[in-house]
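Sequence in, structure out. First:
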Amino acid sequence: MSDIVPQSPQKPQYRPRGKPWPKGQSGNPAGRRRGSRNKATAMAALYLDGEAEGLVRKAVEMAYAGDALALRLCLERTIAPRRERPEPFRLPPVETAADLAPAMAAVMAAAARGIITTGQAAEMASVIATRLRAVEIDEFNRRLLMVEHGDTPE
């Protein structure tokens, strides 16, 4: 005899993939309230309350004693991370597609001379490419209007 129980012909129902909940309702409507803090974070804040000054003093003492990790920690918290600063440089006006090559040459020259960083040069190249698309669209619209009005495009 067999101990196998025949299974029902229905397959188990699974939640649909993607967004199974109606808009505006989460899977747990009675979930964590907005603005509530993690319990571990709150406990750590209570534990360290009033001790921050002593901990900082100890870290500075360890840094003076030659502890490289403490020195690094102190410097990271004291000195703000360096961000790219805007540097002015001459960029020729870009009115037509023919003006884009001199503009890119100006960006490359500024990067080569060290006036701007390579990251800033890449951002400027992206801006110039966007300007190129805008110029091309404007030129296309101008030609389309000329054709619609019966004029011949130049």
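Second:
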Amino acid sequence: MFLEPTAAYAVSAPLTGAQLVALAGLAYLLAVSPRLAWIDASTRRLPNRIVVPGIGVALVGELAATALDPRLSPRLATALACATTGFVLTLLAHLRFGLGMGDVKLYVLIALVLGWLNPLLVPVVWLLASVSGVLELAVRAVAKRTLRLTGTIALGPHLLAASATLCVLHFSGVAPLAL
């Protein structure tokens, strides 16, 4: 069901050293999230100098975790598949609908990090960010006293908020989706 702990990706057991190493990307993402959200909201830019190193940190952490504990290799494969799929889909959204390349790279980082935790979290991030983005447009429409949901939004803050929310749910033992 919707609020059941996941079986394959449960966190009820203490994390091993290898699993903690794999969370380096998550730690980086959460550390830079407030700054990235503020920058994107005010400038509509997600700087490469902040986003791209996070992909490297996540990748190195997950590779190191797999080297320390080879039983984690399916998680690495899943995280890489999530990041690759996320890249392809968001790149198509960039080419077709004008999604910013900063959002594409940010989503790759998020998919790599959350794909390690639970691959079902990755599409849920996109869903939550999309819903909160539409709500932002609705609030703007009400403020302008119109029924038209037009304009653009900075998607980065919505992606980051959705990611942080799902991390809290995941590590609290409540998962938004069960495998």
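Remark: The chain has one domain: 17-171.
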